Amino acid sequence: MPFAEAASGAVGLQTMLPAALRLIHNGEMDFKTLIRAMSTRPAELLGLPGGTLRAGSPADLVVIDPDTPWVLDPADLKSQCKIRRSTKPASRTRSCVLS
Predict the structure, then answer these.
(1) Contact at 8 Å (CB) between 64 and 96?
(2) How many angstroms separate the CA atoms of 35 and 50, rounded?
(3) Residues contacting 93, CB < 8 A, separation 6+
(4) Which residues, other chains included, contact 88 with Cβ-Cβ below 8 Å and sequence gap of 6+?
(5) Where are the domains of the chain?
(6) Pick from 11, 31, 12: which is nearest to 22 by CA?
(7) Among residues 18, 8, 9, which one has the least CA distance to residue 91?
(8) What is the pTM of this model?
(9) What are 9-42's pLDDT values in tens digits?
């Protein structure tokens, strides 16, 4: 499905980074590659000025603690999509998005 046609509110926006950080913890990917895949490259593909820390670019930052455990509670998800209702309770990740 083309990006522009995808439904909004995907639950993955809250869970994607902690899940992707598992790849780093498991030694399957380095942090630089993950950042490129989740920030720099999507901005390039969509023609957006973000995804970089260059002077004059938007400050689209996320603060993480890659070693603080986080328990996903579906009731805490902000999305109203159908996936929210089917997410397994108490999914534990090793990393936490702080802000």
Answers:
(1) yes
(2) 12
(3) 15, 18, 19, 21, 22, 69, 70, 71, 72
(4) 74
(5) 8-97
(6) 31
(7) 18
(8) 0.61
(9) 545 666 788 778 888 888 999 989 988 888 889 8
